[in-house]
Structure formats: C-alpha cells, structure tokens
Amino acid sequence: MQWLRKRLGCSGKGRLEVIECLKTQLTSLTQNDLKLSIGLNDEDLEQLATRYDFSFIAKHIPHRGDSDNLKLIAWFGSAITDLACWDLNENKEDILVEGALFNLGISLFDSVIDEIPNKKLELLHAINVSGIEKRIIKPNDEESRLASNDNVINHIAIIFDGVFSSLGKRMPYSPNEPFISELIRLIRLMYNSEVRVDENPFNAKSLPIIFLGKLGITNSFRPETEVFYNKLGQFIQIYDDWMDMADDFLKGKPNYFFNNRIFYPSFLKYVVYYFNFFKRIISGSIYHSQTAAIVGYFFREVMHASAATNNVLYKKNIVLCQKIIFH
C-alpha cells in the first residue's frame, strides 16, 4: 500500500512536491503571521465529543480515527462555515456547531457506506432525504426525530438530527422561503451522489462545502461568495482526491485524477479510469509535477476567489488553508 501511494505521488517525494508548491503560494500571501481564530475552540469541541460520544463512535467506526481525529473533522466543518459568518454575530455559535456536526456526520455516513456494508440498509433507513426534510420542517416534533434501533447507526442519526433540528429552529420553514428549499435541494444532490444513484459522483465531494457555507448566512449568497465556495469545494475535492488516490483505486471510488469526465458512457468511464491509473503507476514520478501543478492551480483559484469577497473572509480562508495543508 505504501509503495502504491509513493508511486501515485500521494506519499514520499511526490507528496512533498505538492506540499512545497502550496507552501510557496501560502508564504507569498502571508507576509505577517495571522493571529486569527476560526471555527469552534477546543472547549467547544470537547463538549461535542462528550455530548455525542465520540469515543463510542471511534471504537465502532474506526475508519475515521480516534476521538481526537473526529474532533478535527468537526473543527473543519465549523471553520468552513465560519468563513461565511464574517458579518454575522447572532446565532453564530449554533451555526458553527451545525457545521461541525454536518461535516462529521457526512464523514461517518461515507465510512459506513464504504466500510461497513452490513449496516448500509439500516443507515439509509434511518437517514434519508425525506426524513431530513421532515426534521427541518418540524424540528420540535418528536416523531420527526432522526433515529435508529441500531446503536452504532443511531449515533450517526443523532448527529444529523442535531444539525437539522437546530437549522429548523433557527430558520423556520415557509413554502415561500427559497433558502431552505435550496438547502434541501443540495442535500438531495449530495445524498444521491453518496449512495451512487446520481450521474455525478463528485457532488458528494464538493457540494458539502457549499452547504456548509450556506449554513453561515440567512439569505442568498452574494455572487462573489457563491463563486468562492464553489472554488473552495473544487479545491478540497482535488486535494482529497490527490491524497486518496491509492485508497480510491483499491475501493473503486471516483477520483479526479483517474477520470474527471463524468458524462462518459458507463463502459468508457471504467476504461478511462483504469487507463489513467496504470499510466500513473507505470510513469511514476513523471506525473508528480503534473499533479502538483493541478493541485496548485485549484489552490490559486480559491485564493483569488476569496480575495474578491472581503478582507475578513480572505484572511480566514488563509488560516483554513494553512490547517488543511499542514495539519
């Protein structure tokens, strides 16, 4: 496995080449050390870990690491949401918690789908688009609560319930309110992509970033903020696909570096996927510089997009990207 990661450039010298490319760009942007805090703090994360029993989750769904790693996943969700909260103080703590729980929830959902197939049906029964929509619309109704008779799946359901009951209380549903309808549309696209019934497999990777951003506002995105979150979603997808190339191939999962043309006929998708994989395996380090250039391009795009929004979001985005690259 380690040989495969090195050959594909997501470990060893290939990884260092990508990191150095991004580090050089970051250094040019941060002339002064940014003393800026984003996302939930350590105390808030510890409270979440206790309330939602991260230790139990880490024991029974070990694919995402220990309790500390689950807190890191939650922090990233809160930090991405925080970028959209630059001019918002009211309900900010609730919003950051929603972002933290959502990011953790979708990570655990993905782990069960990929790693624990015997619990997949129970997961889909407990957490689905119609149930989520009902919870948002009726956040105080006990019958709408997301839950499962399976103790492991119930822990994930409780996390999602925390997100959508909070969202429903914070933004009461109205048929004439397009914002909640837009969030539900995003949820449907993400869900269908995750359970492989959507033609675009990358929606499950990039749309959660847009959803996290929309949690941080109470109306429509400004055009420049919309562009930024789209670019951020693309960068994080590309960065994760680079890091996960070996794992994705072994699991047969979509990956930008093997096939980014999602609208090929089904048989051709697999041909392109395996062709690009073996081309990278045979060529080895020849493709490492190309990979660094691709990741670097998407990083520049997201930095330019953040600079076009406002100074606060721009600085917060630098802090977020530092954490993504160096954590």
What this model shows, in words?
With 327 residues, the chain is mainly α. The chain contains 16 helices and no strands. The protein is globular. The two termini are 22 Å apart.
Topology:
Blueprint: H1 2-8, H2 12-29, H3 42-51, H4 54-60, H5 67-82, H6 92-115, H7 120-126, H8 129-137, H9 151-170, H10 178-194, H11 203-215, H12 223-243, H13 245-251, H14 266-283, H15 288-307, H16 311-326
Helix pairs in contact: 1-2, 2-15, 2-16, 3-5, 4-5, 5-6, 5-11, 5-16, 6-9, 8-9, 8-10, 10-11, 11-12, 12-15
Keywords:
327 residues; mainly alpha
A few lines on this structure:
By secondary structure, the chain is mostly helical. The chain is built from 16 helices and no strands.
How much helicity do the residues have? over 70%
List unreliable stretches of 5+ residues: none
β-strand number: 0
- Elements, N to C (H/E): HHHHHHHHHHHHHHHH
Oligomer: single chain
Strand percentage: under 5%
What is the general shape?
globular
The tally of helices reads 16
Rg measurement, Å: 20 Å
Return the average pLDDT rounded to an integer. 90
Straight-line N-to-C gap: 22 Å
